[in-house]
């Protein structure tokens, strides 16, 4: 009798743990990036995570590293403050302000309109994007470049200097 009660208690505890984990992982999150002192974003600005679905970049951000959004596998949209002089968003994708460079196509997005001014693509702009969607985006950018008499250019943007060792004591301003 005591053995059966122990097994039931363990099963109940295991089910409770599993249910709480599924609730946590199923909760969508929108991250706001507008803390006044925050001016630069890199891969250490956010924890790699599968919960963030949308990001709003504030007016103070003036530099974004190429790999900032690499591990945001459920990212569906990026918005940028209208007052940001360096970046903009269109069709929920991230571009430089003059909309010539695609900086990030969110990994969980399946379609977006690419402006006719875009002829350059950031190094990791299509990282993790569905292969079919990735080819369609590249095709649209190639057509834009051909219409302007140039070729599509992959760029390696300037990334502000930081220590490439994992900063175990690093604070993540968006997910803490």
Could you characterize what this model shows?
The protein is α/β, with parallel strands linked by helices and 176 residues long. It has one domain (29-155). It is 24% helix and 21% strand. The protein is built from 2 helices and 10 strands; from the N terminus they run αβββββββββαβ. The strands form 3 sheets. The protein has a 5-stranded mixed beta sheet with strand order 6-7-8-9-10, with no helix packed on it. A 3-stranded parallel beta sheet has the order 1-3-5, with no helix packed on it. A two-stranded parallel ribbon has the order 2-4. The protein is globular and about 40 Å long. Residues 1-26 and 158-170 have low confidence and may be disordered.
List keywords for this structure.
three-stranded parallel sheet, five-stranded mixed sheet, 176 residues, 10 strands, alpha/beta
Strand content: 15-25%
Provide the residue-averaged pLDDT.
Answer: 75
Number of strands: 10
Low-confidence stretches: 1-26, 158-170
Question: What composes the largest sheet?
Answer: 5 strands, mixed
Shape: globular
| Helix/strand class | alpha/beta
Radius of gyration: 20 Å
Strand order of the largest sheet: 6-7-8-9-10
Number of helices: 2
Order of helices and strands: HEEEEEEEEEHE
Question: Helix coverage percent of residues?
Answer: 10-25%
Number of domains: 1
Q: Could you tell me how far the N terminus lies from the C terminus, measured between alpha carbons in angstroms? A: 46 Å
């Amino acid at each position: 009798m005591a053995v059966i009660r122990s097994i039931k208690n363990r099963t109940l505890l295991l089910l409770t743990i599993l249910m709480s984990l599924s609730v946590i992982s199923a909760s969508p999150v929108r991250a706001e990036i507008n803390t006044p002192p925050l001016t630069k974003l890199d891969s250490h600005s956010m924890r790699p995570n599968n919960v963030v679905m949308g990001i709003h970049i504030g007016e103070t951000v003036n530099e974004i590293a190429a790999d900032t959004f690499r591990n945001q596998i459920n990212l569906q949209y990026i918005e940028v403050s209208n007052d940001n002089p360096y970046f903009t968003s269109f069709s929920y994708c991230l571009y430089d302000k003059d909309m010539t460079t695609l900086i990030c196509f969110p990994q969980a997005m399946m379609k977006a309109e690419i402006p006719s001014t875009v002829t350059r693509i950031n190094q990791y702009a299509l990282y993790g994007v569905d292969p079919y969607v990735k080819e369609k985006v590249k095709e649209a950018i190639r057509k834009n470049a051909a219409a302007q008499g140039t070729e599509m250019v992959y760029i390696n943007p300037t990334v502000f200097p930081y220590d490439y060792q994992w900063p175990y004591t690093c604070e993540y301003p968006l997910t803490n």
